[in-house]
Design brief:
Blueprint (H helix, E strand, L loop, with lengths): L1 H5 L4 E4 L22 E4 L3 E8 L15 E5 L1 H11 L4 E4 L1 E2 L3 H12 L8 E2 L6 E8 L5 E6 L8 H5 L1 H8 L3 E4 L5 H13 L3 E5 L9 H6 L2 E5 H8 L14 H11 L3 E5 L5 E5 L4 E5 L12 H13 L5 H15 L12 H7 L3
Parallel strand pairs: 1-15, 2-5, 2-10, 3-8, 6-7, 10-11, 11-12, 12-13
Antiparallel strand pairs: 3-4, 8-9, 13-14, 14-15
Helix pairs in contact: 2-10, 10-11
């Protein structure tokens, strides 16, 4: 792998640095009056079943007992950031069903501020149905937005929500909320100097220009990146020998000077156009139990790091540990670790 990378100009291969886990300013953020990390988006109840394998189309297979766990991409990201010590404020909507208190309660237990979460009458909270392969930890997910679709313009424009978002240090967005609301949040943050990290997931191959202009950093996986930039994936699946320098310039032309491209168990790439550099972050390898929410753990970590002005490459380095740790536990939020737990697990 290293030989293939050496032929590419200015690509730096980085083993995740232990010093990122020793960043002592993270726990102190809880003392700040305004949220350091604002996250607007989804909260879902995850109905999860583990089976010996994933079913084929039209096939019924037997699984174990169903578990109901707190999830949702944005809720997961909030918990991940909060467990690292960041002061996190969640913005979104739950319904008036039993899952509403379940979801907000789980966030609060992890240290997330849920003051601004909207409760929508006569509406179910968001939910997902997840099947997990007991052998590989891979999963399939079906998403029902429910109350997440009620994170509308009126909610975003309420004075208290606007004030809290625009006083944050960094804003995290994904696309499980209405696109017009996501775009408005990005624009509000951008106008007030709040750094915006956009996770293009669930993936859209076309993004509003206003959203692109307002977001600072894009987070996508390798397949999403290829579709978004209309770049062919390597036939062999060898992303190590992929032309990442071309991708760096294509990403800039698309509208992002900074981006992280995750490669699953192979790590991630950090693209920095201003520095004309591409950094390869090596993955931490663990025995995966369940990969549900690992990508959200990664993004939550990046948000926490950006809130204390860590470099993007160092944020991605720390995120490689946090995401790997999450794969060793069952569920999404339930599998996330604190700095102390992650240090102990990796013997750092």
């Amino acid at each position: 792998m290293l030989d293939s990378l050496e032929s590419l100009e200015k690509i730096k291969v980085i083993q995740p640095v232990n010093v990122a886990l020793q960043h002592e300013t993270l726990p102190a953020l809880r003392n700040m009056k305004m949220p350091t990390v604002a996250i607007v988006g989804s909260m879902n109840a995850d109905y999860t079943i583990v089976a010996n394998r994933l079913p084929m189309p039209g096939e019924t297979i037997k699984g174990n007992e169903i578990r109901i766990l707190p999830g949702g991409k944005s809720g997961n990201q909030a918990v991940s950031a909060a467990k690292l010590g960041a002061h996190v404020c969640m913005f979104g909507a739950v319904g008036d069903d039993a899952n509403a208190d379940f979801l907000t309660g789980a966030l609060r237990e992890s240290g997330v501020d849920t003051t601004y979460v909207r409760h929508v009458p006569n509406c179910n909270s968001g939910a997902t149905v997840i099947t997990v392969d007991a052998q590989s930890g891979e999963n399939t997910i079906v998403y029902a937005p429910g109350s997440n679709s009620q994170v509308d313009i009126d909610y975003i424009q309420s004075p208290s929500v606007q004030a809290a978002i625009t006083n944050a240090k960094v804003l995290g967005l994904c696309l499980e909320s209405p696109l017009e609301s996501v775009t408005m949040c990005a624009r509000l943050a951008h106008e007030h100097g709040v750094k915006v990290l956009l996770n293009n997931s669930p993936f859209l191959d076309t993004l509003p220009q206003d959203l692109i202009r307002s977001a600072d950093i894009l987070l996508v996986n390798e397949h999403e990146m290829a579709q978004l930039l209309h770049i062919s994936e390597p036939d062999s699946g060898d992303w190590d020998s992929f032309d990442w320098k071309h991708t760096l310039h294509a990403m800039h032309e698309f509208g992002f000077n900074e981006a992280i491209v995750t490669l699953g168990s192979r790590g991630s790439m950090v693209l920095d156009y201003a520095d004309n550099s591409v950094h390869r972050i090596m993955a931490q390898h663990v025995n995966a139990v369940d990969t549900t929410g690992c990508g959200d753990a990664f993004m939550g970590t990046v948000l926490a790091c950006l809130s204390v002005d860590m470099r993007l490459v160092d944020a991605a380095s720390l995120a490689s540990y946090v995401a790997a740790y999450a794969a060793t536990g069952f569920g999404a939020q339930a599998s996330y670790g604190t700095v102390a737990q992650i240090r102990q697990f990796f013997h750092l």
